Amino acid sequence: MKVSYNWLKEYFDLDVAPKVLAEKIERTAVEVDEVTRAADGLKKIIVGHTLDVQPHPNSDHLNICQVDVGEDEPIQIVCGAPNVAKDQDVIVAMHGARIKDNVKIKRSKMRGEQSNGMICALQEIGFDEKVVPKEYVNGIYVFPEDSHVKPGEPVYSYLGMDDDVIDTSVTPNRGDLFSMDGNAYEIGAIYDKVPAMNHRALETTDDSTDIKALLKIQIDAKEDVQAYQMGIVQHVNIVPSPFWLQVRLMTAGVRPINNVVDVTNYIMLKYGQPLHAFDYDKLTEKEIHVGYSPAKTKFVTLDGEERELRATDLMIKDGERNIAMAGVMGGLDTEITPETKTVVIESAIFDPIKIRKTARYHVLHSEASMRFERGVNPATVTAALEEALELTAQFGHGKAVVNHLSAVDPEPKEVQVKLDLTRINHVLGTDLSVQDVTNIMRRLQFSTKVSGESFTITVPARRWDIHIPADILEEIARLYGYDNLPSTLPTGATTIGRLTTSQQVIRGARHILQGSGLNQAMSYGLTTAEKAKMFMLQSSEETKLAFPMSQDHAILRMNLISGLLDDVAYNVARKVSNVALYEQGRVFYRTADVDRPNEVEHIAGAITGSLATKSWYQKEVPVDFYQLKGIVSLLLHDLNFKETVSFVANKKRPEMHPGRTADIFLGDQVIGFMGQVHPQIEKQFKIPETYVFELNLQAILEAPKNIQHYEPISKYPAITRDVALLIDKNITNTDIVAALRSKSSHHLETIQLFDVYEGKHIPEHKKSVAYTLTYRDKHNTLTEDEVNKEFDQAIEALKNTFEVEIR
After folding, report:
1. pLDDT interval class at 113 (50, 70, 90)
2. pLDDT by residue (tens digit) across 314-366?
3. Of 13, 47, 312, 782, whose CB is crowded by the most CB atoms within 10 A?
């Protein structure tokens, strides 16, 4: 909220510099974004009075103005504003002036005519366009008659530009600070001052008009309305607000509209109580209902947008016709216009959750909805309405109906909290006395009863955020001063900082993948329903967000690969052909009967193009299944599992290529998969041939592992044997290696496949494979006879198992 320093001084005498005050607010209450003074950086900007305005002889849109600037002679200024006219009080930037963005104004000739300054719009001297009155958005600003400006005087004080504005960031629990009254109470407590609340009461008259004959109210959604009152002002003239009120609103960041709307905004800023004004003559039924409308009902709000309502949107209705979204925004059909003669003003409190959901769903976060969401003071609902009725009658030269309708009376409830001094000093680490605590409560204007060292504190309704002793403790700490709380160093035995086993494994996995040429990526944990269900390692129910920011981020992910493919697509679209990424993060699995999903650590990778960049000494080789398998094997090998890791072909994963995909087993448990993305999925993501893997890192971390150990390199020579086999196509390398090892002793060190051939001279449904078998004894030199015997046993086992033919 933008807090005006000059407005604060109307509550009590302030002898504190604005920036010092802002620093105190930030240390004690809420965060302060900035302190600004609109006049800073501006120079030689004064009031001028146009004595004469004549068309420029050499231009069809410029005018030559003679302007009184308080000097002996008027000055000539060439102005192109469409609304410049004779006998206006305007803003003039003199020769040498500095306006917005430090632009310097100089004398110059425009189409041959001398111009000795510039007649300015509000935007040109630093006002945001959204606060400029609409009639002056596309032209210069003209001071109204009640501004009482004098030519030659600086404009800063007239326009409130010499006011210091403290922009606070109000937290959800401190909705009371969304009003000037609330800020006055808070600052009064900080500096031990009692604010003077200048609340105007509705003047009584002899008018006998019965408001019940003019209007009726029916509350259909009683559980969602905590207070609802309405008043009427008759014979109103819709005119601009008094100049002081316009300046006050612009300083607070609100655009002046007319005297009725400006009064409702002023009361909202002052009390924190949002109001809404309806044109009484546009109400056909004259019977206000607060309730709901059928889903998909169309409704046009004040901003001119047509919105489709939900069945849960709380509405204000004239009979069955919707006229406002309760607590959010009014309807276009009943807005205040220059023809309005009778005004109905609404003052209410609605269920904050209902208002928040409506504002969020329709992306319509108004000043009113922000206050309703955080809470409104029930003690001032009636006072705010009465002052609004009084000011509307005064500024519009109308007559307020003395009595008002109250369909739901506000119920301000005071809260009693009990606390003792021992507890206060124990929690805060202080040595406060009974008198110290009593003084703090007095500054907060909380009434206190003391019995020995026990306190019974009565909290007024304006502080609806306080309910329990912990809240009072926070108030005491704030007012006492966080800087005054004693500080102590933590005590306890020191320990050597180190990573846990899980952290070591995760960090090691990252190092291996980065060493293999992959870069780390971080994807969103939220995705679409379609992408969430892709590449899943196990079946799961999707977990939806109740209020997603967008449909692209509505479901918790159940895989990492789809996010990596989005990253690959992003790079490919920008002409990056070689992309190698990995991600380590959590996926979310949920069973049908549980609301909260399980979070499971996964690690995944995606590669397209080549891992090696083309150069003068090597060619670019596209990544393939075996290159990716080598990376995954390296990753798993270093973990030294007790059980064996194996790769088994799988044609049933719908998002993967049926001939280039393998499940990864650890013993009998599937811990992941790898292979090429299915061409149809590649087309969907608009990416070229891409290879991916995903592993259940949680299962890897929990799997039993051998204690890492190292074996010395043998000093004895190795003996190799090559063998070529003719086998059926359906026999895999894994099968061959397993058979060879089953009939070999511990001397067989490695089995290396070095050739695979199919084609000419090979029978149909057959293939030729060739292996190198390496034998070594770690303690002695092997003899030819020992190797031949072991080799023959292995070959015989192959023949018996697979009926292979030795070539």
Report:
1. very high
2. 999 999 999 999 999 999 999 999 999 999 999 999 999 999 999 999 999 99
3. 47
Token representation of residue 235:
């014979």
Lowest pLDDT segment from 45-49, 94-98, 120-124, 209-213:
209-213
What is the spatial distance between Cα 657 and Cα 680, in angstroms, rounded to a whole number? 9
Which residues are CB-contacts of 484 (< 8 A; sequence separation ≥ 6)?
Answer: none
pLDDT bin (cut points 50, 70, 90) of residue 637 is confident
Angle at 397 between CA 393 and CA 402, to 5 degrees: 35
Q: What are phi and psi of 233, to 5 degrees?
A: -120, 125
C-alpha span between 174 and 651 (Å, rounded): 59
Distances in whole angstroms, Cα of residue 605 to Cα of each of 389, 531, 635, 757, 761? 67, 16, 12, 31, 40
Mean pLDDT of the chain: 93
Q: What is the pLDDT of residue 166?
A: 97
Q: In degrees to the nearest 10, what's the CA dihedral of 268, 270, 271, 274? A: 0
Place of tokens 């699995």: 589
pLDDT over 80 (residue 210) = yes
Instruction: Pull the structure tokens for residue 234.
Output: 């008759």
**Helix H or strand E segment including 673:** strand 669-677
Choose the weakest-confidence range: 65-74, 473-482, 663-672, 777-786.
777-786
Alpha carbons 640 and 55: distance in angstroms, whole number: 91
Bridge partners (DSSP) of residue 278 are 344
pTM over 0.90: no
Half-sphere exposure of 343 (CA within 13 A, CB side): 35
List of residues 6+ apart from 91 with CB closer than 8 A? 45, 46, 47, 48, 119, 120, 121, 122, 125, 140, 141, 155
Instruction: Name every residue whose Cβ is closer than 8 Å to that of residue 729 and which is 6 or more positions away in sequence.
Output: 758, 765, 766, 767
d(CA 548, CA 544): 8
pLDDT surpasses 70 at 206: no
Would you state the pLDDT for residue 316? 97
Do the beta carbons of residue 349 and residue 227 sit within 8 Å?
Answer: yes
**Run of H or E residues at 344:** strand 343-350
Q: Which residues of 651-688 are buried (b: 16+ CB within 10 A; e: fewer)?
A: eebebbbeebbbbbbbeeeebbbbbbbbeebbebbebe
Give the pLDDT confidence score for residue 334 in this predicted structure.
Answer: 96
Annotated binding site, which residues? Answer: 465, 471, 474-475
CA-CA distances (angstroms) from residue 164 to 126, 320, 604? 14, 47, 55
Q: Which domains does the chain have, with CATH numbers?
A: 2-38+163-191 (3.30.56.10), 43-147 (2.40.50.140), 211-408 (3.50.40.10), 415-484 (3.30.56.10), 501-702 (3.30.930.10), 719-806 (3.30.70.380)
* Residue 641, strand partner residues: 705
Q: What is the mean pLDDT of residues 259-277?
A: 97
Provide the annotated binding site for Mg(2+): 465, 471, 474-475
- pLDDT of res. 630: 93
